[in-house]
């Protein structure tokens, strides 16, 4: 008799090593009979034919599935990770929203079955006030500067930054947040023990120390193009909103953006030069029917994330000049005073297009504030006036 | 007896030299009794007290109003200009839309009473397919490059560019259009005989030759701050839409933008670096309740101007790579093939998360297109494949 895993967590870990995330048929079956029973039926050849075909290679050469599951658990422990499954106290329930958007065209957009997490933090708590910052690997200096800045300021405002682990925008966002003492979440498309790309090695170590490295795939899984796309749905679903900073027209960040929009999360983008191909994909978001919001500062991101009732971004302080403090009518009168001449009230009023009585009142006020001088009931621009 | 102008056009010219545009009381009176009668009553002291006060300085020192009107007509003719009044065949009727937006807060947002135009062209015809390009005087090289480019391409697509006459964006837009042989319209806040600023002298000459210089004020009128704001409503009302290219937070371009939005014209802006103060005002438009559209190319401007049924901007051609032509399932299979190994169909199908029968079909197709080689019913990545 086959030795089967007797723990749902172990069974889910085993299944995740055999079948890619977002398999609608498997997920439906898991919902019906639970992971232990699914594993049992797989090895007994009693699952729908399609699932049998997908798993046949592994089933046929694995005579002790419980031992295989234990191996995965050991590899998980060895790299200091653990596995979260739905129902765990630190499982982020917002991932369920993915059920709302998966459909026949995209059956793989399902909630994850389980998550490997590396780090001490509580994933649910970290993501409760979180925002994704995503963008191009081949980002410009400008884009990286923006990502770093935005991540730093959002961190200071108490928001957790969630991103992938790529060079460019992902890296800049993590480092910006980490530099302010933040805990970030890096969601990977490979095993958590060897985050890709290796060049971000020390960044990943810092994230594991302070935040969390997260993946749907067991240790030993390597990156593949389709896994990045699958991973993106998790970044979008974990967070309250996604900010796209620099994305070429074809870009994974735009894929994350679409998931965010479909999930009803707040989709934002930062603008850049029209002449920069790296900004083209971000600008394109503004012209798609997703209502992507243009953001230029952390305050605006927070305003958009918190919506009605939340803090409003203070408009940047206008560069006020003395002239600008004048009312419309005051300004008209000051401007209508020819430099170096003295003018009667009625004539000045006519030039400024202001009724004479209002002009007289207003000129008295301008006299008090030092804008004009009065000479024999006529008016002159005061020498101290700047206009 | 006072010598009064006997022609409505002359009467309007005279009135325009006495009372600033957008005087609700005068305009209402003009609607009731017509310009000749208004002039008569002004000189007889039979108009409402406020109008009397505004005009008293001129009325009291002008004993021959008909001669004064004739002087204005002579100055108009001398600079090669003419005066258009509502009802003229080349009067642009869309200016009437301003009646929809003037209210107690902004009584001056009224249609112009008359327009001085310098140039041969028909103003109505020129503006029938027109778009305003406005922005900062202190524009960056980037902004000027954009304005020039956009104006050139819109001109080639048969659109007339309308703008002010300032340095920076206005100038770049005019020159971009003129360089492609376009006729542009420059709407001024001073007399058409001496367009401000003088530094754009040769540009204005070119515009007068090929397009039109337009103003609500008679020859001899100098610019004033409030006249620029009054002028902006005409730029917004003449055109089907306004594109704001670079505007600081406090900027006349944003004033034009607001009029365009209120008039139901299409309001557009071009993005720029978040770090550029010159783009801040343009970006701010996207966050105001005006539904300003982000545009990066002339095609997008035209798409927005023509709306439903108009030409759609073709999305920029994606930079296709051979791998990208593969379907999702083909791509998964190609990526799951380890380099340098041969793999069985079922094992490869499992690794790619694809049902074995679909994998088999798909691999046959990939064999034909040269992506994979078959060796004894097992599969290998073809040497020629790029992935």
TrEMBL record, chains A, B:
Question: What's any GO biological process attached to this entry?
Answer: DNA-mediated transformation
Report the domain of life of the source organism: Bacteria
Q: Which Gene3D superfamilies match?
A: 3.40.50.450
Record-annotated Smf/DprA SLOG domain positions: 83-305
Q: Which InterPro entries match?
A: DprA, DrpA_SLOG
Point out the signal peptide segment: none
The record's annotation in NCBIfam families points to: dprA
The family assignment reads: Belongs to the DprA/Smf family.
Protein's recorded name:
DNA processing protein DprA
Q: Which organism is it from?
A: Glycomyces algeriensis
Q: Which gene encodes it?
A: dprA
